[in-house]
């Protein structure tokens, strides 16, 4: 009877998404709550803060990068369906079969072969295959992630890709006509892939970081503090993350890197090399408009949305940081079965607690020395975005979470 079948999906019915029907199997874990958000396309809703940030990024790229005929260099795509094949989301990006990012617990699978995309990178190969050399792609993405003020199971990313031929990359360099993107006897190392020349990677990386630094300065002004962090993605090498200082903390806003050549080869662009990035639109909008909680992007409250009704996207938005209503918290501890995974519990909390839940954190865990049984304790922080919650409301929701965790996840309460 419950909307949220995390542990035991109903095997009988098909999964319906966007008027299409998919057979359910043992991998299906997408919930009705999540499916309701498919098609909301907040990034395409005029005046929504995610739309404004998308439009500002588009404008920046349109006005800063011209093609040979004075046309915008980057084409923009924002209407690709979030329903993708598992092959697109992972294999096409060289993500190995046993890679942790494929875990059923971390993704929304429609079934074993189809899923809600976990990142906009899922479309890199198809757009390169279409012959595009420079594009931006915005869309909704879905992850069973942790729960806090900067993570939400549905969020929005913008992907950017730019490819260069030998000539395009080296023509502006003195003596560049003698340089080449590729090198025969190269070796993979921290700096580069085996097939790339060091000159090519140096210029590509400079172009990538310069492009993104200019974007961040265009969005936030020259005073913004940012830093580059080395990291790893299976589809780029070398790879970096960009962090921006926000409310006394470093907030990760994007991942990027030099595209793995094998992806370009398989997309029919083997004579070019390029970079890619994927940025979080919510994260940038939170910094720009000083929005304290990621759930606010789903608010239908006119008091919130009204503030973004500007006639020109560049008009400064005097967003009054919404006054936050006080939080209430309540802890829950239980014995967990061996099959237990925290993401299943997070999903259940999302289903039962809805948008009242601001954060779930693991407070404590221990293993009984004699029985070997494992116990975990989570703190759930409740806060309504538009009013003060009552103790009674929280108590009822919390009790419902306890009951559902017992019946659906097989945990034994210690309350
Ligand atoms: C990726 O998704 C890579 N596809 C990015 C990429 C693209 C790398 C192209 C290289 C080349 P990551 O999982 O770090 O990486 O997510 C990218 C950004 O999405 C993050 O920096 C963050 O801004 C945002 N993000 C990630 N998870 C969430 C979430 N649960 N809620 C809101 N924003 C999120
Ligand atoms: Mg990351």
Automatic annotation (TrEMBL):
Superkingdom in the source lineage: Eukaryota
Keywords assigned: Acetylation, Aminoacyl-tRNA synthetase, ATP-binding, Ligase, Mitochondrion, Nucleotide-binding, Protein biosynthesis, Transit peptide
Xref: Pfam families: FDX-ACB (PF03147), tRNA-synt_2d (PF01409)
Enzyme Commission number(s): 6.1.1.20
Signal peptide range in chain numbering: none
Top class in the EC scheme: ligase
GO biological process: phenylalanyl-tRNA aminoacylation
Main location: mitochondrion
SUPFAM superfamilies (alphabetical): Anticodon-binding domain of PheRS, Class II aaRS and biotin synthetases
GO molecular function (one): tRNA binding
Catalyzed reaction equations: tRNA(Phe) + L-phenylalanine + ATP = L-phenylalanyl-tRNA(Phe) + AMP + diphosphate + H(+)
Cellular compartments annotated: Mitochondrion matrix
InterPro entries tied to this protein: aa-tRNA-synth_II, aa-tRNA-synth_II/BPL/LPL, Fdx_antiC-bd, Fdx_antiC-bd_sf, Phenylalanyl-tRNA_Synthase
Ranges of residues in domain Aminoacyl-transfer RNA synthetases class-II family profile: 53-302
Cellular component GO terms held in the UniProt record: mitochondrial matrix
Gene3D superfamilies recorded: Bira Bifunctional Protein, Domain 2, Ferrodoxin-fold anticodon-binding domain
Domain FDX-ACB positions: 323-414
General function of this protein: Is responsible for the charging of tRNA(Phe) with phenylalanine in mitochondrial translation. To a lesser extent, also catalyzes direct attachment of m-Tyr (an oxidized version of Phe) to tRNA(Phe), thereby opening the way for delivery of the misacylated tRNA to the ribosome and incorporation of ROS-damaged amino acid into proteins.
Subunit relationships: Monomer.
Family: Belongs to the class-II aminoacyl-tRNA synthetase family.
Protein name as catalogued: Phenylalanine--tRNA ligase, mitochondrial
Lineage: Eukaryota, Metazoa, Chordata, Craniata, Vertebrata
């Amino acid at each position: 009877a419950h909307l949220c079948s995390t542990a035991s999906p109903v095997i009988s019915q098909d999964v319906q998404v966007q008027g299409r029907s998919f057979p359910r199997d043992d991998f299906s874990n997408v919930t009705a709550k999540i499916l309701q958000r498919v098609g909301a396309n907040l990034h395409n809703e005029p005046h929504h803060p995610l739309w404004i940030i998308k439009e500002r990024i588009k404008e920046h790229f349109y006005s800063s990068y011209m093609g040979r005929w004075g046309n915008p260099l980057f084409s923009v795509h924002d209407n690709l369906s979030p329903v993708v094949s598992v092959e697109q989301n992972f294999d096409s990006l060289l993500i190995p079969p046993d890679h942790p990012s494929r875990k059923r617990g971390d993704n929304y699978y429609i079934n074993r072969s189809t899923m809600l995309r976990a990142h906009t990178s899922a479309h890199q190969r198809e757009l390169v295959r279409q012959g595009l050399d420079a594009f931006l792609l915005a869309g909704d993405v879905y992850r069973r992630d942790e729960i806090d003020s900067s993570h939400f199971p549905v969020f929005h990313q913008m992907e950017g890709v730019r490819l260069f031929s030998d000539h395009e990359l080296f023509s502006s360099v003195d003596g560049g006509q003698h340089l080449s993107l590729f090198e025969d006897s190269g070796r993979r190392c921290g700096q580069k892939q085996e097939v790339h020349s060091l000159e090519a990677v140096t210029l590509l990386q400079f172009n990538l970081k310069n492009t993104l630094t200019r974007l961040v300065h265009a969005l936030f002004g020259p005073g913004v503090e940012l830093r580059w962090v080395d990291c790893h993605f299976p589809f780029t090498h070398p790879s970096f993350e960009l962090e921006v200082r926000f409310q006394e903390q470093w907030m990760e806003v994007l991942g990027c890197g030099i595209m793995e050549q094998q992806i370009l080869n398989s997309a029919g662009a083997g004579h070019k090399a390029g970079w890619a990035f994927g940025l979080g639109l919510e994260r940038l909008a939170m910094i720009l408009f000083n929005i304290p909680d990621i759930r606010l992007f789903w608010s239908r409250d006119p008091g919130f949305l009204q503030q973004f009704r500007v006639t020109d996207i560049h008009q400064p938005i005097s967003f009054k940081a919404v006054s936050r209503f006080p939080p209430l918290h309540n802890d829950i501890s239980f014995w967990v079965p061996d099959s237990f995974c925290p993401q299943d519990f997070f999903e259940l909390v999302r289903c039962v607690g809805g948008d009242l839940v601001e954060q779930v954190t693991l407070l404590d865990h221990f293993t009984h020395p004699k029985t070997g049984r494992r116990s975990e304790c989570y703190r759930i922080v409740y806060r309504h975005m538009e009013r003060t919650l009552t103790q009674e409301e929280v108590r009822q929701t919390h009790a419902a979470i306890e009951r559902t965790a017992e019946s659906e996840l097989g945990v034994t309460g210690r309350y």
